[in-house]
Amino acid sequence: MAVTHPPGVPVVDDGVLISTHPASGAEVGRVPVADEAAVAATLARARAATAWWVSLGFDGRKERLLRWRSIVANRLAELADLTGRETGKPEADAIVETSAALEHLDWAAGNARRVLGPHRTRTRLLLAEHSGHVEYQPLGVVGVIGPWNYPILTPSGPISGALAAGNAVILKPSEYTPMVGQWLADTFAEAVPEHPVLQTVHGLGDVGAALCRSGVDKISFTGSTATAKKVMAACAEGLVPVVIEAGGKDALIVDADADVPAAAEAAVWGAMTNAGQTCIGIERAYAVAPVYDAFVDAVVARAGRLRVGEEIGPITMPGQIDVIRRHIEDALQRGGRAVLGGADAVRPPYVSPTVLVDVPEDSAAIREETFGPTLTITRVADAEEALAKVNALPYGLGGAVFGRANAVRIARRMTCGMVAVNSTLTFVGMSTLPFGGVADSGFGRIHGDDGLREFSRAKAITVRRARSLLPAMTFERTPAQVARIARVLRMLFGRAPR
Ligand code: NDP
């Protein structure tokens, strides 16, 4: 059936969400919109499924998660095609996105026991007669709210961590990418047909809000900072904990001893992949004076060769085009220069690669998330000036540094959660690393050991092994024993550090 609304704008018609391609408007699929009762029923099914999922233990869950991994890997072409139809994303980008999702799923399944399973803690002199044990138990049901820009990868991180930790999951995909979210849940159900351990609820923002208020045990939110605040407010009503993966304005610093051609190539990839619609996309570059001209030239040469419509897909969310246009026009009006692209680059639903220089630091193109294939490049005297400018924004998601002698030192001083040295974006695909931001970019971590612990609660247990030598925690202690305890405390803790 032909859809007559503007391409890419999701429509709710008679309780059904209709998803379309952002450029052609071709219908991709339909899903039922959940109301509050449907969200509550989904939660009830998830709660009933948790006991079984927990009973499988780490090994049983691992086996099923790896079954799901195999299905996704073997049907990669189908998933890439669907993602392309729903977001406009080039096939190669969808495959790269899925590769990271598969890596995180594989890692979470294989490492959950090591990270979360029972551990004995080290014995100390005080309470030496007891052994300490810690294990990380599942929370129950985790709600995952995802964005449209990486509809496979962004929900997969928290879904993999939460499932491996023993939780059931309810996914609310973006209204722009419901079919990709449904595909993930459907393939999971093929791998795990017994119980609805991973389910979806579909709809607009109000369905996400209903999920926050439904009684889930945690919300993992990925999306804009503005929506994150609404999510936190809704979750606060029920004291529901949240992990927030919000927006960014990531920067690249190019130091004097950088490999400039490599930095330029990586800058173009980091800024323009997925048409710049990347939370950890490089939106600002700061190049030190000795390499600035060469870096700008190399970036312009490489970005100028990108093929719009092939390597650069359409802007998925039509409303974002106005933001991109405003940032470019504002930068140009305020003294910036387009050395590639510019105001004419915006031809909806496409935006051609745009490189802006001499842009004032207080302009929108430097301070606000653009989410398009644009890059500002700013000349700085040295890495110190670059760091001051990079760290001046309230965002702090990721970043990158190109250089040799001081690159890692510079990376440590960037106020953000992740930095790639001599590459861009790589940390998102490394399953052993935690992923998350600071300040307006959010808090909490997905991926890696921290990402597994994010979806569990620490349970501490002490076990008495012997009679107490220093019986402090009993009314049966004698004055002599209390005096001995006091002597031991002075011996253990009384000496000043040298
Ligand atoms: P939004 O914040 O608009 O939406 C994110 C999700 O929240 C969507 O599923 C949305 O549903 C839902 N939502 C909307 N309103 C509410 C509400 N009141 N309560 C609960 N849920 C709600 O972000 P976008 O989808 O536009 O994604 C782009 C943003 O995501 C960018 O800022 C980007 O930087 C950020 N992002 C961050 C990442 C990270 O890891 N830090 C990774 C990827 C993206 P609906 O779509 O139906 O409105």
UniProtKB/TrEMBL annotation:
PROSITE patterns reported for this sequence? ALDEHYDE_DEHYDR_GLU
Domain (Aldehyde dehydrogenase): give its ranges.
19-461
Q: Which UniProt keywords apply?
A: Oxidoreductase
**Tell me, what's a Pfam family for it?**
Aldedh
What processes does the entry annotate via GO biological process terms?
Answer: aldehyde metabolic process
Residues at the active site = E245, C279
Picking any one GO molecular function of the record gives:
oxidoreductase activity, acting on the aldehyde or oxo group of donors, NAD or NADP as acceptor
Keyword Chloroplast found: no
Task: Indicate whether Oxidoreductase appears among the record's keywords.
Answer: yes
In which family does this protein belong, per the annotation? Belongs to the aldehyde dehydrogenase family.
Recorded hits in PANTHER family, A to Z, give: ALDEHYDE DEHYDROGENASE-RELATED (PTHR11699)
Its recorded name reads Aldehyde dehydrogenase
Query: What organism is the protein native to?
Result: Mangrovihabitans endophyticus
